Amino acid sequence: MEELRRILTELGVEEQEIAPDLRLRAHLALDSTETVELEARLGRDYGIVVDLWDAHDYTLGELSARIEAAGATPAAGDEHAAPAVNGGGAPATDTAAPGGDASRTGEDGLVRISPARAAEYRSAGYWIPRRVDQIVLDDAPAEADQVALVAGERRLTRGELRSAVSATVARLTALGVRAGDMVVVQLPNEPELVVLALALSRIGATPIMTPIALRHYELDHVVRTARPVAIAVPRRHTRFDHLAMAQRLREEHACLGTVLLSGEPDPSCVDLAALCAPAEDGAGGPAVQDTAEPAPDLDRAALCLLSSGTTGPPKVIPRLQEAYGYQLRHTPALAGVGPESVYLAVMPATHGFVLGCPGVLGTLAAGGRVVLGASTEPEQAFALVERERVTHTTLVPALVERWVDAGRATTHDLSSLRVLQVGGARPRRGQVEEVPAVLGCQVQQCYGMSEGLLCYTALDDTDEVVFDTQGRPASPADEIRVVDDAGDPVPPGELGALLTRGPYTVAGYYGDEESNASTFTADGFYRTGDLVRVHPSGSLIVEGRNRDVINRGGEKISAVELELMAAEHPSIASAAAVAGPHPRYGEEVCLFVVADGTPPTLVDVRRYLVHRGLARYKLPERLEFVDALPYLGIGKVDKKRLRALAAEDR
Fold first, then answer.
1. Which of 163, 177, 337, 509 gives a 20 to 30 Å CA spacing to 282?
2. What share of the chain is helix, strand, coil (3-state, %, to 5)?
3. Whether pTM exceeds 0.90
């Protein structure tokens, strides 16, 4: 055990977190970089070849036994360097729209759509005068004694959830939180996350839903931009000290006066469990009363999401009450979610896809039950599916693949599952077409963005549409433009940049005038940065990002198209294509590959792609091997990092 202990401590695992019965993923939460390094160390130092990302989640005791069985001792002075790389469209143009359709920025810094469009959405019934907390708590077709939230052994009924939100409103008000304030909410999947978000909505304050994986660099930018008055964090999560980070941020930013702490209490912080407890639990604080205004200002943000940060620090995305409320009221029916549904959240609920598409809040709004999971590991999730009779869940493509592999051998009863939503990235057909047979449920592809637009395949679509497209816009009021570099519409079926506006798509980022000027058109359309084609069914096929187009001597090449085809090669586990510099053509196709077994040569890959029918001008000129693709956010490859690597190698 001592040899493994030495390796893990060098990887940053703390001494007290190393025990024989702990598992690498479920307990230590090693990320992909750490896992690759551990695999390399075991192979180099002890001759142990092991795949730490297969279906089995190794305990430290199991790995230690393999080291002892190998009977090898690492060479003295080994530097243990982590392996890295082996071997080395313009925005659309527009003019101001007639009729005063431009967005407007208020004194509170929120960018709002034009009054004329807002009036249209209200007249059509898309926007109604209800806050998000009212839609979720008061309008849902559910009785007070029905279970609303499950987390481990904790169960909150509808009545207890309403009581907790009302009590939290009073306690937050006593702490000085007021309408218009912002609060960073960086919490794992736990009931306090839901209670706090709904309580802030009722006050008229705004939770900034912050992914648990973000660190000081990203949060410092968020705090500088939004000037929040408080931050909610766990004491520790997956080996990271969130409390220390929050205290540092509080020292650096005068606006950040309060830390709301989940977990073991700290005298310098407010105990989040006590803050969010139902009134009848006697958790302290003032007498409970609903302090929300009788005629609330619906023009406020219900919550803020954060962009994935693929072009820099995350942007703050305010989702206004009426617009986000429409999303929560409308999307459950598209996924077949109703009062009898049970939604399992295994990915972070602070991400927009899991939070409200329909996700956690949409399921509650539809009268269903939400199970907050702590792990994406298939067997742990399958146990929850069986115990809670889960009907719906949400995954990214890489997790779908793992669940299908594990599902072939599981002994858990998954017969309650009805719909598996797949999003966050475009899946390969091979990743989703086995889901109905293995997991016994339907696939629903979902495409969207934190800024608004959502697309879904229908539950009665053909296999071709379900497996090969990313769905149709959710609302009849969603407006779509697919344009070329000049801003002109492309012919049906042709590749173009996607622009959109609609009743739940934002009009601008918070505190970022530069991004707003480049990302939103004068008539209120959002430049998504995605390249799409329109399928004959009306569904969109997402081919990549504007940045994912490689311009090789004037020929435009979709990186996603190449990646999906290359990943079907029998010797390739995953692939990512980026533009590398070329002295003659400007850009060349550089394909980063994670090998599956014996690495293929560049000639092998090119021959395979030609055999598959890919145009020769799209073939890669360079093949670079990596142990794992770098990822940003949820399921998104860090293309910025790969472009930098491609440039360095030249």
1. 177
2. 35, 20, 45
3. no
